[in-house]
Amino acid sequence: MDDALLPVHQHDPETLGMVREHLLPAEIADRVAGVFWSLADPTRARIVHALTFAELCNADIAELVGLTESAVSHQMRELRLLNIVSAQRHGRMVFYRLNDTHVRHIFEDTLRHVQENLE
Prior knowledge:
Elements: H1 13-22, H2 26-39, H3 42-51, E1 56-57, H4 58-65, H5 69-81, E2 85-90, E3 93-98, H6 101-118
Helix pairs in contact: 4-5
């Protein structure tokens, strides 16, 4: 078919205006990307998965995922900065939990998506 006969894409100003009105501001888009970035690392994904089951201390997380406590502390600092987890100190122990149900849902929905595509 001759390119001259192909329909030319025309933008729908009404649709573009509606989308532009609702498009994420750059700052919010950066924060959304940060949440997904935090889960893009397999170690952090395993830690978040472990925390979907229970609140855990640094030593427990280290044992579960096969890291040193120092390496876990580094990962947990990243997750805390992104508001994925929160920490609470009990004496010398620090316990971590998912920050809220939104984080749990994001992780569980992503896990379901991955598992469905494996079938």
